[in-house]
Amino acid sequence: MENVNIEEKQVGLPRLGSPAPQFEAVTTQGNLKLEDFKGTWLIMFSHPADFTPVCTTEFIAFAEIHSKLRELNCELLGLSVDSVSSHIAWVRNIEANFGIKIEYPIIADSNKEVASKYGMMMPGESKTETSRCVFIIDDKQIIRAMIYYPLTTGRNMDEILRVVIALQTTDKNAVATPANWKPGDKVIVPPPKTQETAEERVKDTALECKDWYFCKKSL
């Protein structure tokens, strides 16, 4: 019966390019709303449980990229169904044992309200814990990327950071990024939409073209 309830709650899950579901929640830094992050990018991520080894490595890793994210006008917001007291005790334990201070807030989603809105509960994997979900939300509060990991696999921070930079690069320059793109690599120029511009494209010496539809350039 519990599985059915969770699935019913998660009808109409968020989609790429759609507004992020609004919420107000209790966190380790007081009550916060999604609106509080308007004007900044946001990485909102869920973890299965406090005081677990894989989650501990992830929280340390998120803390290590926190300053880089802030340079990109991007904040962090964690979530699990544990209580605020549990979150606080775990954060203090991480600082005491690993020397890492967790400065970003963590939602205590004990009623699973936020998790249900964002599709963070996967009944086939766990009926009680949130999965390892990552939502990248832009400064207009639109969902730009979603990444899901199984409970047993810790997340790759380099990839999460890369996706934020790629999205911001796309927005700023009206380009796309190829497979395995890293900052400093050439970017993809959008394909031309008319025969005339296709002819012009292959003659453009500022571009590196394999054919009219496949051109790269440096920024």
Description:
- The chain has 219 residues and is α+β, with helices and mostly antiparallel strands.
- It folds into 2 domains: 2-155, 3-Layer(aba) Sandwich (Glutaredoxin), CATH 3.40.30; 174-217, Antioxidant, Horf6, Chain A, domain 2, CATH 3.30.1020.
- Helix content is 34%, strand content 22%.
- The chain is built from 6 helices and 10 strands; from the N terminus they run αβββαβαβαββαβαββ.
- It has helices spanning 2-9, 53-71, 84-98, 113-118, 157-173, 195-203; strands at 24-27, 30-33, 41-46, 74-80, 106-108, 132-137, 143-149, 187-189, 208-211, 214-217.
- A hairpin with a 2-residue loop joins strand 9 (208-211) and strand 10.
- The radius of gyration is 20 Å and the shape is elongated.
- Residues 1-11 have low confidence and may be disordered.
Order of helices and strands: HEEEHEHEHEEHEHEE
Number of domains: 2
Question: Judging from the principal axes of the Cα atoms, what is the shape?
Answer: elongated
The overall strand count is 10
Question: What topology, given as strand order, has the largest sheet?
Answer: 5-4-3-6-7
Instruction: Summarize model confidence as the mean pLDDT.
Output: 92
Q: Quick summary of this structure?
A:
With 219 residues, the protein is of the alpha+beta class. It is 34% helix and 22% strand. It has a 5-stranded mixed sheet with strand order 5-4-3-6-7, covered by helices on one side. A 3-stranded antiparallel sheet has the order 8-10-9, with no helix packed on it.
